[in-house]
């Protein structure tokens, strides 16, 4: 395929069929084009196959039928959602070296430049050894910047971003937004951050799980979401009218059938009308489904003082520092932990959840529920069924299935191993597990990462109503605004809590 102008199709799908397995088709007879220089959002519900579509574009997956055509000479790079476990032990230099098929001898200056682009510049005291630092030692927000940098260092013609704002603080998101606004090449983004997307995207590729096809919309993100919402409402109204017609014709058919004689022919025609109406009903898109309202039950008989903290560690100037404090986390209190990327929020939550942190004293018998941002506290080899049943005790299986259904976890998903779920599906499993666990202390690290935006108000309501002790880290102000926060612990300030006068 030859090079073209600004409006040339740099990527095109022609009659593409692809199945992840026989039970899960992703695409059916799909055709669409991505123009050079366009900035698009890829939408679709959790588990629809958005990340799989990226793998079809990169050639990691091949279509079962049809063609995926990439313009000659086009280079493509993906900024992944998470750093794979087998790369966590790499040094920074090794991590970037893996981005290239052939050895790059002058890679250090390239790393310096790209780290500056993603605003991850090492402190002068550690600059000489920074590239020898282990990837797994970085915070979630810093790892998000490394993921973006690993794509940018390749200087691709097409940049595919998979949830790039996950774990980024407000400053990081603003920096990325400005970068993408000025970026002159092709960008396709998967994200659930509506404001971020609306700042730079000019169209949407909508992966429908209903017809397993790509629908293409022009306009900014908010406009397209409104268009889709209006279409869903129209489909529902049409179905409601069809249901009325179906019921009316069924009633007529039954009436005439009982009359006998020639009336049976009239009844037959009525039934044929019913069949026509049934066939013409609009299949309302499943993406409109939202998880049910839920409650996280609090553990019974927990003491007033759930957790006491006499010290904790933070990272300042890339060095650990222990801070003395005298903090008590009481039953029913909701705490918000804040601070810039890299200061140690995730490390603190992880150590508290383990029950072995220095300076930590959790009251005897308190059950800790931990939502970890990378889901590594889930057993990836377990099926969803095994994962949820593991916290059920002697309670009936039906109770578990009822809770799971509220999180859209049904059917084949129950028998699927955790490692094969999308990141969004893992998040819903983690929330279902917390409901079944009934914790007295709830620890949540970026619980909106990967979650479909339709579910977020439901989750916020459940956390707002949680009656146990809660510790929350979230960079999404819109989400935090919906939750009653009693105390704020700012890790960038001296270790004293400060009551939150108004929602942040």
Descriptive key words:
33% helix; six-stranded mixed sheet; alpha/beta; 14 helices; 504 residues
Describe the structure.
It is a single chain. By secondary structure, this protein is of the alpha/beta class. The protein has a 6-stranded mixed beta sheet. Strands 14-15-16-12-17-18 form a 6-stranded mixed beta sheet, with helices on both faces. The protein has a 3-stranded antiparallel beta sheet with strand order 2-1-4, covered by helices on one side. The chain has helices at residues 50-58, 92-97, 107-117, 140-152, 170-182, 194-198, 221-257, 263-280, 345-354, 384-389, 397-406, 423-437, 456-465, 477-480; strands spanning 9-21, 24-35, 39-43, 65-70, 76-79, 158-162, 186-190, 203-208, 213-218, 305-316, 319-330, 334-338, 360-362, 368-371, 441-445, 469-473, 487-490, 498-499. The mean pLDDT is 85. Strand 8 (203-208) and strand 9 form a beta hairpin. It has 14 helices and 18 strands. The chain is globular, with a radius of gyration of 26 Å. It folds into 3 domains: 1-75 and 156-248, P-loop containing nucleotide triphosphate hydrolases (Rossmann fold, 3-Layer(aba) Sandwich); 83-155, no CATH class; 305-499, P-loop containing nucleotide triphosphate hydrolases (Rossmann fold, 3-Layer(aba) Sandwich). The longest helix is centred in the middle third of the chain and has 37 residues, at 221-257. Helix 3 crosses helix 4 (140-152) and helix 7 (221-257) runs antiparallel to helix 8.
What's the helix and strand layout?
Layout lengths: L8 E13 L2 E12 L3 E5 L6 H9 L6 E6 L5 E4 L12 H6 L9 H11 L22 H13 L5 E5 L7 H13 L3 E5 L3 H5 L4 E6 L4 E6 L2 H37 L5 H18 L24 E12 L2 E12 L3 E5 L6 H10 L5 E3 L5 E4 L12 H6 L7 H10 L16 H15 L3 E5 L10 H10 L3 E5 L3 H4 L6 E4 L7 E2 L5
Parallel strand pairs: 3-7, 3-8, 5-6, 6-7, 12-16, 12-17, 14-15, 15-16
Antiparallel strand pairs: 1-2, 1-4, 8-9, 10-11, 10-13, 17-18
Helix pairs in contact: 3-4, 7-8, 11-12
